Amino acid sequence: MAPFEALYGRRCRSPLFWSDVGERRTLGPEILLEAEEKVIVVRRHLLTAESRQRSYADTSRRDLEFQVLERVRPVAYRIALPPRLAGIHDVFHVSALRRYVFDPSHMIDFTPLGIGENLRYEERQVRILAHETKELRNRVIPYVKVQLSNYEEREATWEPETVMRESYPDLFDAPC
């Protein structure tokens, strides 16, 4: 039942619905009581739908205790975090307060860098991943995709092949 129909006891006569309304009834106490009853029924249905939706939304939530240091905004709080979480920003939106589930893929592989006395490290080209040529109007420029020593394969860069052959001839002896 549409809200208009619940309130007024008849279907809404929009430009798409110009059929006969039927006999005209005067607004008396009986019609008002009937309309109020329909409003009560509609409100009851809305409340049950709201509580059902709330219960579905609350299935993944649970009560945890945190010490709230201060209220920053109406829905953002500064929370006292345990020492193991000291590196995390301590202001949270209420909807973001969920416990982290450990996933081994989130581990970062730590390999120390060889830092020299001047606090710099040397990038070394490890291998060539691909060859490509760029064609301009007058000439063809060969490029190679090179993986650097301190980066993953997805972070490889395209470099001109002539520059790489001069700097790292040993890379071109090995097969790709």
TrEMBL record:
Pfam families in the cross-refs: SH3_Tf2-1 (PF24626)
InterPro entries found in the cross-reference section: SH3_Tf2-1
Top-level taxon in the UniProt lineage: Eukaryota
Tf2-1-like SH3-like domain span: 65-101
UniProt-recorded name of the protein: Tf2-1-like SH3-like domain-containing protein
Organism annotation: Ananas comosus var. bracteatus
